[in-house]
Amino acid sequence: MPPWRRMRSGCGCRTARMPAIPDGLVPGMRSRKPPLRFRGDGTFTIVQFSDTEFCRDDDEERRMAAMMERILKDEDADLAVFTGDVIASLGHPDPVEAFRRACRVPEQAGVRWAAVFGNHDSEGMVTREQLHALQLAYPLNAAKPDPPGIHGSGNYVLTVMGSGAGTAGADGDSGVDGDSGADWAARAAEAVGGYEDAGADGNAACAGRKSGQLAGRKFIGNEPGQRLNGPRGRAVCVAGFDSNSPAAALYFLDSGSYSPLEYTRMGFYDWIRRDQIDWYVSQSQGLTEDNGGVPLPSLAFFHIPLPEYNDVWDFTVCYGERNADFSCAPWINSGMFAAMIEMGDVVGTFAGHDHGHDYWGEWHGIRLSFGRTTRNGYLDRPFLPGARVIRMREGSREFESWIHLEDGTVIREQQRHEPTGRTPQIGAMGLDKIYPGAF
């Protein structure tokens, strides 16, 4: 068994905690990329691009790239996320070049970015592993190397660090940045096992750790920025949010491509595998433990929707469009949604894959959302491309989300859909005709 320490999950099972790869550390690079961070106003804005399918460097693609850059600028994005089918690899003799064109969009816009992969990314002359290695080489890419031995490529978790608003700066004075002050405070406090009060120049500074736990993650009964006496009788600035501690987490998962059981009549699309779910659980447990037993507000990004995306549309109120009789989820439910419920950290998931869908609905406390196709809805009626925008707020499990279209329209209130029950998937997909006599 690998030398991972054993932990007990919220569901009572024992799970190996796999070693996390430090944020921003890229193999072959001597320096770390800067971590993602909430802004001083407590916001973190993500733009989700879905099914861009970069393929041919033609007018349509250049128009899409210009739209993407425009949306990133208009939304003042902190992170761009490609939720799969970044390229249509079968349609290009050099799919790596097509992927490079996709990467250039956020790089030229000066925006950090990350990608997961879909069924079209690795269909022709390129592997997901090659694409993932390529994204890691870009200066503004925030992704991390794959954990060893886990199915697929593009499985990683990113933490969004606290803003540090109200914490002490390097000279011990209250400031918005506070990175230097937080650095020494955490190190020194861990050593003494209590609040540390000496700043870089010996002046008062923010609270570091108490009993080995970062006090800056919580208000600990005081308003942010309130000063009180530390254990040595000197002033300590209690921060609302520690700039050197994670305040949120973003999970990225490879949902695969086509069902390995397709020819045994078990659906068309792949599913998140059990070892990936175990990896997610181990990362979630570790972050929760490090946060004093409180799950970090988290989002998850993958290409192929979970089976629960059909459940939420059929059985509860949703908002947005579903321009087909069903969502193209796997037929096998491998338990990813159940794991998220058990861990209690993920508050929203974001998928692509279904070009004509942009709906969202809340299912057992988790908001299941589709992006908005960024290239083409492939419908017999107008369906403008665009992006989904997500805004997280530091210290909150709530987030905002809206659609930003190619023509500049911003849709904050999507149309309401009342549940209508379940459409039998077999008949809807015409599988009785594809496999006559099988059902």
Describe this entry's structure for a reader:
This protein is of the alpha/beta class and 439 residues long. It folds into 2 domains: 298 residues, Metallo-dependent phosphatases (Purple Acid Phosphatase, chain A, domain 2, 4-Layer Sandwich), CATH 3.60.21; 59 residues, no CATH class. Helix content is 22%, strand content 20%. The protein has 9 helices and 22 strands. It has a 9-stranded mixed beta sheet with strand order 3-7-13-14-16-18-17-15-22. Strands 6-5-4-19-20-21 form a 6-stranded mixed beta sheet, covered by helices on one side. A hairpin with a 4-residue loop joins strand 20 and strand 21. Helix 5 packs parallel to helix 7. The chain starts with 5 loop residues before the first strand and ends in a 5-residue tail after the last helix. The N terminus and C terminus are likely disordered.
Radius of gyration: 23 Å
* Helix content, binned percent: 10-25%
Low-confidence parts, pLDDT < 50 over ≥5 residues? 1-22, 24-30, 166-240, 431-439
Percent strand equals: 15-25%
In total, the number of strands is: 22
Supply the key terms:
439 residues, alpha/beta, Purple Acid Phosphatase, chain A, domain 2, 9-stranded mixed beta sheet, 6-stranded mixed beta sheet, 22 strands, 20% strand, globular, disordered C terminus
